[in-house]
Amino acid sequence: MQALLMAVWRRKPKGEVLIHSDQGSQFTSMDWASFLKHHNLVHSMSRRGNCHDNAVAESFFNLLKRERILFACRLQEPRYD
Question: Where does the Integrase catalytic domain start and stop, copy by copy (predicted)?
Answer without folding.
Answer: 1-81
